[in-house]
Structure formats: C-alpha cells, structure tokens
Amino acid sequence: MKRIIASILTTVIAFSLTGCARRYYVREEVVFKDSGISLRASLYDGDVAGAFDGMLALLKSFDEEINLSNPESVLSRFNNSVGAGVEVEVSGHTYDIIDLALKYEEETGGAFSIAAYNLSKLWNLDTEGVKKFNPVTGEPLYFALPSMDEVKQTLSYSNISCFNRRADEQTGKYYISKSDARFKIDLGAIAKGYFADLCYKMLNTYEVDSAVINISGNLIVKGKLQKTFGSKDWGVRIKTPRDRFELDREDICAFEVESGTSLVTSGDYERYYYHASGIIPCHIIDPRTGLPAGVEFSGSSDSDNTYKMKDEWLSSVTIINKSSAKADAFSTAAFVMGFDDAYEFLKGREGVRAVMFTEKETGVKPLHGRLGIAGGVEFIETKTYSGFKSYETVKI
Question: Which tens digit of pLDDT belongs to each residue from 256-282?
Fold first, then answer.
C-alpha cells in the first residue's frame, strides 16, 4: 500500500485516556497483511463495537483485491503476471477507486498518478528499497542512481495511457487491462482516503454520534468531541517535518476542524534515504518527470546519473477537505508540484484548505523555508506556535 504514514494526531486519543472527555470506545487493528496499514477509531454513542467490526470487515475485504504486499491479491497478479491486452476482473469498489484516481490525475495535470510503481522501484523508493537505509545511523547508501535515459525509458511504460478499464453494464462486472505488460499500478496514494470515506458513511448505520477514524494517518472526524462539561470541535495537530531523525517530533501547529472533515499529510520524513551523491530522495515520485519530489537532474547528457536537490522543496503538505480521497490525492499532487505551482493549483479549489512547509538548500544544510496557509486555517496558540517564526508565511 501507500507511501506515507502522515503525522497528524488528534487530541481525542489523548483526551479519551484522561478525565477530560467522556468515555470513548478506542480500538486499533491491522487491516492488511505485511503492509502496516491499520484502522484506529475512537467512537462515542451508538453501536460502537458493531461499527468498528463493520469497518474492519469492510477494509479487510480489500486485502485480496488491492494490497500489493499480498502477492495473491488481484492487483499484485495484474502487475506481475498479466500480459498486454488481458482483461482482469476487479470489484466495484476497486473500479471506483481507479475511476476517482483517473479523475484526479486529469485535475492535477498528471501530478497525481497511480502509474508510478515502476519509477519507485527504479529509484529504490519502494518499501524494500527504503528499508536498506538506517535512519538511526544516517549512513548514506552507495548504489548507482538510474541514468536519465533509464528514467525516460521507465516513464514510457509508466503512464496511464498504457492502462484501460471497462465496465460491462449487462453483467455488472468490471475489468482492467494494459497495453504494455511492464505497466504496473499502485492505488496506495488514494485508497486509504477512499477507505476513510467509506468508514465515515458507515457511522450513521450504527448511530455513532462522535468519532475520529484514523487509517494509518488518513483522518476523518464526525460530530464534536464530547467532553465532561459540554462538547467542542475536534482539535488536530500537525507535527514538524524536521528533524527527520527524530521519531517523536514536536507539533508545529494546531487548529480545529468541524464534523465531516478529513485531513491527510504527505511528507518527505518517513520513507527516504540519504544517498552518497548528496541527494535525499523521498518515496513520493513526480510521475511527470520520473524523479523523486524535490530532486532535479543536473547532468550534461541523458546518459548521466547526476542529480541534486532543488533550491526549495516541500517537506510537508496537509490537505483538509470533506472528501478524504480528494485530500489523499491532492496532498500527493501538491507535494510533487512544489510550493509555487501548488499555490496556483490550490488557490482555485473550492472547499480545499492546506498547510504547506518547505525546505531551502543553502549549500551547507537545509533550512526552513516557507509556510503556506490556504483556505483560512486558523491556528491555535500552543507552546509550539513559535516554530512558525523560522518560516516566511504566505497566505494562499
């Protein structure tokens, strides 16, 4: 599955373990085999146990369909053993996820895509590749980076033009196929958001009045936080993207959100490596260029494999929206766009709010850059609020 465990924390988890809030039903379970994807929920009123069991059963039903950590899943087989032109039947839910993904790919101008799997493998930024780096020691990796020729070759069969889908209205069945056997897809950059939206809809069935659902960092809230002396909007916090080596980074800002709001963060600080050449590639690939976000080619010819970090790159993007699937896709897209292009993209999106942090390269070490705030996010004064002083603040 996906890319990043977004570092958004809700205050409900802390409150539910103290006397500050009424008693919530809090439970967490692993959803997919070998993927680290988990469902955590804090639920209040209604059939809370039934609601959690229903959500868990629904999400586990996707394991045999889209989990790329499961070699027997439909998408694993599609990626690894299906030839060009061969149709593979998928579920209605999987077809819906793909349909949404293609819509967002068009809306983002290709900055979001489900077709970057081969590029992640090329850069050793898939799960197995990133595991080679030890963030505790920080020792760089010394393997040869791909040449620009290799990147372009991989791009030629890693774009959505190689992909086809078909809905058979008579039978009610859904199919996917590819025109190049090397083409592979990964729904990880949107599936968790889709799951969160499904779980949110299920809460009404079980008459749950107040809840926070966290699917490995994709967050969605319902109702208000029920406290001993009344209720309030949900408080959320975003952790600082720096220092990468800190496992328990401080919260850099906090704000409140209303019922039905989802938050998703994409960042460069969970899955990355230091390379001996000096670049720090993170797992989020720009599907338009074939390069990791924040990295640019600096060689003299396409046969070179010389790269450098851009003068400025995004270290963290949080998208706030009613749709968790949209927040999921847009956080990835904005991240690869970079600050200025993301600024232009986000300012015209109704209902989308965002918080973005950049890093700047000084030639010695990266320094904090700009903080972008879209859609009228109002920060709560906290002890970490002073962290903003190191950023140039830009209202979008």
Answer: 999 999 999 999 988 999 999 999 999
- How many C-beta atoms surround the C-beta of residue 298 within 10 A? 12
Which residue would you say has higher pLDDT here, 241 or 264? 264
CA–CA gap between residue 47 and residue 245 (Å, rounded) = 41
Residue whose C-alpha is closest to residue 281's, from 264, 289, 293: 293
Burial of residue 247 (CB within 10 Å: 0-12, 13-18, 19+) is exposed
Torsional class of 365: left (φ above 0), alpha (ψ -120 to 50), beta (otherwise): beta
Nearest to 135, CA basis, from 230, 55, 246, 236: 246
Cα–Cα distance between 110 and 284 in angstroms, integer? Answer: 14
Confidence of residue 143 (pLDDT cuts 50, 70, 90): very high
Whole-structure pTM value: 0.91
